[in-house]
Each structure stands twice: as C-alpha cells, then as structure tokens.
Amino acid sequence: MSQSLDKSTTATTTATTVAPKTADSALVGSTGRTTIADTVVSKIAGIATREVEGVHDVGGGTSRAIGALRERIPGARVNQSQGVAVEVGERQAAIDIDIVAEYGVSIADLAAGIRRNVITAVERMTGLEVTEVNIVVHDVYLDEGEDDNQEVAGTRVQ
Question: Would you give the DSSP letter of residue 51?
C-alpha cells in the first residue's frame, strides 16, 4: 500500500526575519552617541530669537529683571539662554520662548519668524529635530524716549 501525500493539505512554513531598524542618525550611530546638553540648545535658541527683527527682549518679567542685575556686574556676560526653556531627547527637542515684542510689529509674523529662525539654527547646529517652538509674548515695548522731548501742556484749551 502506497501512501500519497496530498499537496493541498501539506503546510509550508516560511520564516521571515525582519532586520532591526538602524538607529543611525547625526547623533546616534554605530560608532557612538553624541549627547547635547539642554543649555546648549537653549543658548542657540536664545541667540536665534534675538536675531529676529521685532524682538525687543527675551524672557518674562522676572528673568529680565535678573538679567538686568547680572549685566551690572563687572565682567558678567549676557545670559543668552534667558527666557528659553527646552526639553532635549536623543533625537528631538521642544523649545519654549518668552519674549517682549516691539510695538508696531505683527505678533503673528514675529512668532513665525522666530520659529523659522530657531528651528533652522537648532537643527543645523545640533542635528536634533525640533518638534515644536512655543512662544509667549509677555509685553510690548514702547519707545518712550520720544515722548520725553515733548512738552506737556497744562490745558487743552488756551
């Protein structure tokens, strides 16, 4: 008696192996890992923010007051990361920036310009992907120096 195998009931198993994703990026590779400190990213973002026309100052009220005191100390440097908070991961960064805008500029256009400049600078210099740049406008700067030269009239009618 001969046995015949039914080809339709014979199961064939094919094993597929998935190659692991390579973690190679500008900062993580097969030859090592580069770690960038939060202060480096915040300094780059602070400098890039100050470069945008229409930004009067960076930081909220408290950080600007502390910065003003720091500038009065002989030999002290400007804190470029003032008003900037960052979260840095292995490949990404999220940035929060507090600013004072100059009076007369479009705040929406100013925020877009800051985002564009900060993202470009941080990604170019660090290789990190910037996932978000949140901007808080704390105040609007009025150039009151011009008002000091005008005489204040006692009455409106002569």
Answer: T
Amino acid in the structure at residue 39: T
117 vs 122: CA distance, rounded Å: 9
Q: What is the pLDDT of residues 9-65, one digit of tens each?
A: 444 444 444 444 444 567 878 899 889 999 999 999 999 999 999 999 998 766 555
Q: Look-up: residue for tokens 């920036």?
A: 97
pLDDT digits (tens, 9 = 90+) for 106-145: 999 999 999 999 999 999 999 999 999 999 999 999 987 6
| ∠ Cα 39 40 44 (to 5°) | 115
DSSP H helices, the chain, are 38-50, 61-72, 107-126
In angstroms, the CA 129 to CA 127 distance is 7
Q: Is 94 helix (H, G, I), strand (E, B) or coil?
A: strand
**Residues in Cβ contact with 147 at an 8 Å cutoff, skipping those fewer than 6 apart:** none
Beta bridge partners of residue 78, listed in sequence order: none
Helix (H) or strand (E) run with residue 20 in it: none
Residue with tokens 């705040």: 107
Query: Cβ of 124: how many Cβ atoms within 10 Å?
Result: 10
